[in-house]
Amino acid sequence: MLTPNKPRLPEPSIPDDVTGFELDRSVKNQLRTLSKENAVGVGQHLVMVATYLDTDIEAAQAHAETAVRRAGRVPAAREALGLVHYRKGEWAKALSEFRTARRLSGSSHMLPFMVDAERGLGRPERALDLAASPEAATLAQNERIELAIVVSGIRRDLGQYEAAAVGLQVPQLKVGSREPWAPRLFYAYAEALLAKGDEEGALTWFGHAASADLDGDTDAAERLSELDGTVLVDLLEGEVQDRDEAAGGRGERTP
Q1: In 3D, which of 180, 200, 247 has the Cα closest to residue 219?
Q2: What is the b/e burial string over 183-219, where b = at least 16 CB atoms within 10 angstroms of the residue's CB?
Q3: Minimal CA–CA distance to 187: which of 217, 157, 226, 229?
Q4: Which end of the chain is more exposed for a tag (fewer CB within 10 A), N or C?
Q5: Under 8 Å between Cβ of 102 and 109
Q6: pLDDT tens across 142-152, in order?
Q7: In whole angstroms, what is the distance from residue 22 CA to residue 155 CA?
Q8: What is the pLDDT of residues 106-127, one digit of tens each?
């Protein structure tokens, strides 16, 4: 007896000006395993995931799930859905998607996210073991820095404040750096110094982070003001509480 096909789920709409060719070359190469029509469609949905990831997470999820339905063996589609789950704090689902993407691609470039997901699941020792795995040595420089930031946060969670600071004393911790990761590295180092009681050092590095953060990716300027005492604490109470709850964390990573 033949089983009727499941009805095809409706797909989220794509704006007319989104072609799918806006993707990086590496992702477009992955899509070559698909038919031309499907490759274009999946590419468009992946573009929309990137478009909505920071502004409308539910819309991003709809596009990511569509991409996975149409191309479940394309690593970029699984990574996109993993990032959506990661942003929603759905750590187990995110970890599952990242593991699938790694198995399909053979690449470990999502390792920092995987480590952070283990942290989110309350498994710091497993997170540290994963961070110390041989695959970590294959990461690009920016990915190694992201991994160091996550590991520093885990060390803080465990009360290992000295180790949290020492782990970020990498050659890339250079004042005046304008690399894209510099504000987050400086910010994480300031947080580590503050955690171990070095408020003067934290002030200095929050200042470096604020100077390097031209795009406002961190709240370094606000943290600097708080520590300096130049802003009334009661005016920031709600904001500080919200940030602390979010940092509880995984505030160290912002993909």
Answers
A1: 247
A2: bbbbbbbbbbbbbbebeebbbbbbbbbbbbbeeeebb
A3: 217
A4: N
A5: no
A6: 999 999 999 99
A7: 38
A8: 999 999 999 999 999 999 999 9
